[in-house]
Specification:
Blueprint (H helix, E strand, L loop, with lengths): L2 H5 L11 E8 L6 H4 L2 E8 L6 E6 L4 H11 L9 H10 L5 H19 L9
Antiparallel strand pairs: 1-2, 2-3
Helix pairs in contact: 4-5
Length: 125
């Protein structure tokens, strides 16, 4: 396997045609992350055939926060709409970054819908 293949996630069994989407939002000044970043970033890898989020990451300051974020997002099908994912965060994520993370996920979802509708990439962040 090529080094490039490893960088694209083949070691994790991800399909070569997976998609990468990002979303950004301003961070509340009360967060620890605000000391490090002005915005919070979210990134997801999506299977274009099923719309399933295969992997996810964010710029929360703690490893536990990033891990919990991933557990809420991974396995979600974007074709089910953003409401279910938003509901997961409203019910289970009680950190100060909840609104920011939801905003980021809305940006990811909008980019995914644009991709499905073959709309050119736009700057929505």
């Amino acid at each position: 396997m090529s080094r490039r293949g490893l960088e694209l996630g083949e070691e994790e069994g991800l399909a070569q045609k997976t998609l990468f989407f990002t979303g950004y939002a301003k961070v509340p000044m009360t967060l620890t992350a605000a000391k490090l970043y002005e915005v919070i970033a979210v990134a997801v890898v999506v299977d274009p055939e099923t719309s399933e989020i295969l992997d996810a990451d964010c710029t929360l300051a703690t490893a536990l926060g990033r891990s919990f974020f991933k557990s809420l997002v991974q396995g979600y099908f974007l074709d089910d709409g953003i409401e279910g994912l938003e509901r997961r965060f409203e019910e289970r994520y009680h950190g100060s970054a909840r609104r920011s993370l939801i905003t980021c996920l809305h940006n990811v979802y909008n980019r995914y819908i644009d991709y499905k509708n073959k709309v050119a990439v736009r700057e929505i962040d």
